[in-house]
Specification:
Catalytic activity: a fatty acyl-[ACP] + malonyl-[ACP] + H(+) = a 3-oxoacyl-[ACP] + holo-[ACP] + CO2; (9Z)-hexadecenoyl-[ACP] + malonyl-[ACP] + H(+) = 3-oxo-(11Z)-octadecenoyl-[ACP] + holo-[ACP] + CO2
Protein name: 3-oxoacyl-[acyl-carrier-protein] synthase 2
Radius of gyration: 20 Å
Structural class: alpha/beta
Strand content: 15-25%
Pfam family, one: Ketoacyl-synt_C
InterPro entries: 3-oxoacyl-ACP_synth-2, Beta-ketoacyl_synthase, Ketoacyl_synth_AS, Ketoacyl_synth_C, Ketoacyl_synth_N, PKS_Beta-ketoAc_synthase_dom, Thiolase-like
Order of helices and strands: EHEEHHEHHHEHEHEHEHEHEHHEEEE
Number of strands: 14
CATH topology of the largest domain: Peroxisomal Thiolase, Chain A, domain 1
Helix content: 25-40%
CATH class of the largest domain: Alpha Beta
Oligomer: single chain
EC number: 2.3.1.179
Length: about 400
């Protein structure tokens, strides 16, 4: 089978608006969570989120065009621009039918949907923006990225809730490995920090109502009380190995394996025993052609909800047996919050950098141990340690489970 490597990466996150700034913040254990500024929270139970800060949209999209794009699409374009520049690929010299886009979102243009619903209610629905539909539909970030770079290969959008970003990377791996494409721009983007979005997740008791930024997103901590909403985008350039070598591309690491399953159990609650999440991990390890004990580090889904963190701990134990207690497991959502459809892509980037730099990011703000989450979660401080193989997990509403394996290229 053809090998697939990462040759470029881009990110817009609550802890940095490019990959370098994000990585430096993650290594330092910086918390990107703060008081919500996108809307007035006076009547909201939830006061905190992981917002993107200091982002200059006009540096990415012409001011006139900004009115035709939702924020999730703009974040995706910014991350894609960075990733393409980072990869130094010249699509003008490529067969663009062999270059595609798989760019996910869990919800899409929620900001636009809320605004235009309110406009329709007050002025009549025939008065909503003519750009409403193309701004709000979930595939539009993928479409805009393909348009910007003139990519004529497959262009699609994975929508599997919180697993979307990891499914996008895994599906891109298969498209390239199986010979359908040579290069794919893949990842995810999300922007749902609105009173509508926050209210929806609050009403289903998914979000933390903590007002202390250091005690809100606390994965694996016994006092965890729900996740904190994040936003942004992560984009990776996946490329066939020989194609990358031929053009002299730098290589971060190899995407070596992918597994995807479904709990088929409940629309929001994961299987408590973690059996199907474990199966996704097992399939990813098998797909990579390695043994479970080869995995050095897992970037966990680790949302900071009672059910997820317990279930994922059980899943890791099922998948890895005694080795579960020997590998490092951390949740970078403790710093970024939960970026929904973008989370898996951003965490794939962080995992790739962990492999490349032999640095394991921490689970910050960890204070109270939980017997249900008794793995080595790398509490509070990054760790220098050899990482030959890393795994990144994403588990989404609807029972979607996805895992990828990343391998050091030497």
């Amino acid at each position: 089978m053809r090998r697939v490597v990462i040759t470029g990466m881009g990110a817009v996150t609550p802890v940095g608006n490019n990959v370098n700034d994000m990585w430096e913040a993650v290594k330092a254990g910086k918390c990107g969570i703060g008081k919500i500024t996108h809307f007035n929270t006076e009547n909201s139970a939830v006061k905190l989120a992981g917002e993107v800060k200091g982002f200059d949209a006009e540096s990415i999209v012409d001011k006139a065009e900004l009115r035709k794009m939702d924020d999730f699409t703009i974040y995706a374009l910014a991350a894609a621009d960075e990733a393409v520049k980072d990869s130094a690929i010249d699509f003008g010299k490529e067969d663009t039918l062999r270059c595609g886009v798989i760019l996910s979102s869990g919800i899409g243009g929620l900001t636009t949907i809320q605004r235009e619903c309110l406009r329709g209610e007050s002025k009549g629905y025939d008065r909503v923006s003519p750009h409403f539909v193309p701004m709000s539909i979930t595939n539009m970030a993928a479409g805009h990225v393909a348009i910007r770079f003139g990519l004529h290969g497959m262009c699609t959008c994975v929508v599997t809730a919180c697993a979307s970003g990891t499914n996008a990377v895994g599906d891109a791996l298969r498209q390239i490995r199986d010979g359908y494409q040579d290069v794919i721009v893949c990842g995810g983007a999300e922007s749902c920090i609105t009173d509508f979005g926050i209210g929806g997740f609050t009403s289903m008791h998914a979000l933390s109502k903590a007002e202390d930024v250091n005690r809100a997103s606390i994965p694996f901590d016994k006092e965890r009380s729900g996740f904190v909403m994040g936003e942004g985008a992560g984009v990776l350039i996946l490329e066939e190995y020989e194609h990358a070598l031929k053009r002299g591309a730098k290589i971060y690491c190899e995407i070596a394996g992918y597994g995807s399953t479904c709990d088929a159990n409940h629309v929001t609650a994961p299987l408590e025993d973690g059996s199907m999440a474990a199966q996704a991990m097992t399939e990813a390890v098998k797909d990579a052609g390695i043994k479970p004990e080869n995995i050095d580090y897992i970037n966990a889904h680790g949302t900071s909800t009672k059910l997820n963190d317990k279930g994922e701990t059980n899943a890791i134990k099922k998948a890895f047996g005694e080795h579960a207690y020997k590998l490092a497991v951390s949740s970078t959502k403790s710093m970024t919050g939960h970026m929904l459809g973008a989370s898996g892509a951003v965490e794939a980037i962080i995992s790739a950098l962990a492999v490349k730099n032999d640095i394991i990011p921490p689970t910050i703000n960890y204070q109270v141990s939980d017997d249900d989450c008794d793995l080595d979660i790398v509490p509070n401080k990054a760790r220098e340690s050899r990482v030959d193989y890393a795994m990144s997990n994403s588990l989404g509403f609807g029972g979607h489970n996805a895992s990828i394996v990343l391998r050091k290229v030497v």
